[in-house]
Amino acid sequence: MGDLEGLLEKAREAINEEDAKDMGKKFLKGEFTLIDLYEQMEAMKKMGPLTKVMDMIPGMGGVKIPKEMLAQQEGKLKIWKFIMDSCTKEELEDPGEIDRTRIERISTGSGRSVTEVRELLKQYKQSKKMMKMMKPGKGGKGNKQMEMMMKKMGGNFPGM
């Protein structure tokens, strides 16, 4: 069943109410930048190891995600943080402007490979696409789309 109260408490500790409201407004507008992704990663880091957080989410505790996979994802989050630390403010605000030469510069500055920089950009685009799908109204599909996506991932989350 998870520990929703514990999860909410950890979330409150990780992100203040004002920041959460700002993120909610951006989410409703369909805006999402690498800065937002960075802030989400920081908040997740404050909440603790992914294995513990996943166990607290109702319905996710029963989903058998190998600990190695979660550890690998935590490692990717660290790498992506290094990469984002090597981006300019403009690149973080408008990742669509990051071309091949900028990818190479970011790669060199972060000490990470071009492939890892491209992987971060791919993840960002997927996250942004998911945000747009969730956006209520005209362009988004809202809860039905999210429920379908979660079913594809193997979870059973009615009413989501």
Automatic annotation (TrEMBL):
It holds the Pfam family SRP_SPB. GO terms for cellular component: signal recognition particle. One of its GO terms (molecular function) is GTP binding. InterPro entries: Signal_recog_part_SRP54_M_sf, Signal_recog_particle_SRP54_M, SRP54. SUPFAM superfamilies: Signal peptide-binding domain. Residues 31-131 form the Signal recognition particle SRP54 subunit M-domain domain. Coiled coil: none annotated. GO terms for biological process: SRP-dependent cotranslational protein targeting to membrane. This is Signal recognition particle protein. The gene is ffh_1.
